[in-house]
Amino acid sequence: MNPSERDPAREESTRPTQEVDRREFLKACSLLAPIILGVVRVPLLNAQESEGDDYDPSEHFYAMGIDVDKCIGCGQCVVACGTENDVPDEPYFFNTWVERYLIRTDGEVEVDSPNGGMEGFPPTTAEGDIRRSFFVPKLCNHCANPPCVQVCPVGATFKTEDGVVLVDDEYCIGCRYCIQACPYGARWLDPEKHVAAKCTFCYHRIVEGLVPACVEVCPTGARIFGEVERRATPLARFMRFNEVQVLKPHLNTEPKAYYANLDGEVR
Amino acid sequence: MAKFDPFRGTRVPQQVPRLVAVFAVAIIGLLVARYFLVPDTFGQLGHYRAAALDTIVAHEKKYAGQQACQLCHFQIMQKRLAGNHKGVGCESCHGPAATHVSDPAQIKPSIPSEREFCLRCHEYSPSRPTGFPQIDPVRHNPMSFCSNCHDPHAPEPPVIPGQCSACHGQIARQKAVSHHAGLECTTCHEAPEEHKVTPRLVRPTKPTERSFCGGCHARDADSPPHIPRINLRLHNPRYVCWQCHYPHYPETP
Fold first, then answer.
1. Which position has the higher pLDDT, A40 or A155?
2. Do A171 and B39 touch (CB under 8 A)?
3. How far off is chain A from B227, nearest CA to CA, in Å?
4. The sheet that has A130-139: what strands, in order across it?
């Protein structure tokens, strides 16, 4: 019960008709209270439940976890991302891609990612010669201190309050500075629109409470989507139970793609 | 006349009013240009156009998410969640289904049946994590559809120990060309039946002592004479055998 809503009503009803005795007045108030509360409170409660209508970015802070030990290199994430975000079919444009690392017995490291891993990986040659091998999914790290945003001359790429780095398609002038600045190679120039493009964490999905397309289709749970700092999500558990690392920490970009079981050879 | 005149008594140089006029025009020009060129919502939330968020959020969804599938396909969902494909989202195999959700009668998602689709995940690759079920497509029932034997919504794991190699292909291949080729996996590991259902929760045993390897390789061991022997008491007693020798691919002595 909210006293501030009742007080003016009481004053108005008591002042003109002094004959009304206290008992009847309180009765009327108790009858009126549910109506007032109903009108004021119910829309508020509904607003909290449906996240899509009243999304509050200050309540979220998104990040992604990647368990390298679970990735099987099937490339479903690359396919799903391409479909969901209309990434052109031309080769070598990816929001997310999978790299295969091959470390030979003589210590030589080979990295390949044929078509981003979209069609899987061809069999390796000289199998006996392998010391270890694994897949590493990569994507925009959605840095908390993003170099791409710093260099944008027009303010077309930006960091949202909920921790996602996005590109304003209509405002980008296609100067490619951000593509040069990104140390993770996560950006590309859209060949048709001539604007910079990148992973959005499927922003249109996450504001509705869904997970990004790559996470939705990952068959082994190698990708874990969630939030850091603000809410309890699967990512918080993942970071508690694994020793997580980030890519290129020395660049001080504060990346928010957290890798578990990451090999020292991964760049 | 007590009118305030800051320049009283001093002579204003001729160029000053002109310069002031030029600066004023420049500043007014800049403000006018800013008024027309800077987008409406620029700077509302930060150094960017806040309206861009609306455009990005309005992007069309192609993947519906498995919560949407559950509403109609509850039974098949329950079946999948109880089986080994519990982590595999519906749209991982059936493709994007947002259009199917909006018009279930007309638009049907795909049902992949060809071997190549299953092999995307289950073909043997040395890069895949150990323990992930993999097959050699050339030897594993070629020309047969996967779904002839395996239910994709609740696939059954292979039988052990004959098929340890189904998951541990890398180890099996290495062992097959090593001096330990003749040894069964079960010679050294005991794999409980539950290991094939929950491979990471119930793990097979591993030898824990030097004396286990000593069973074949000690001086006094009761084993064929061609097996290399060591003196268990004197041969680097600080270490257990597998700290130097890899049992699945022991070096030639």
1. A155
2. yes
3. 24
4. A109-112, A96-104, A130-139
